[in-house]
Amino acid sequence: MIKKTSQESPNGIVSAYKDNAAFVKGPTIQNFAPEQPDQPSAYAVKDLHSIISLKAETHNFPTTVEPFNGAATGSGGD
Q1: What element of type H or E holds 4?
Q2: Which end of the chain is more exposed for a tag (fewer CB within 10 A), N or C?
């Protein structure tokens, strides 16, 4: 169902929920980094097209219910 929906209405989807994660196109941001990362070089500001990751825990007990142990598989989830 997710694959069919994302094919019909991509809306910036890069990857739709593979291994409980999805990636969508984010805003263009400014990145301050070396001009040539593989050797010493001057730093520069460049535009970077970002990607936002979204994580879904589909089988673990939610962190809001189990705040101290985080997602505690088997102690409340299915």
Answers
A1: helix 2-8
A2: N
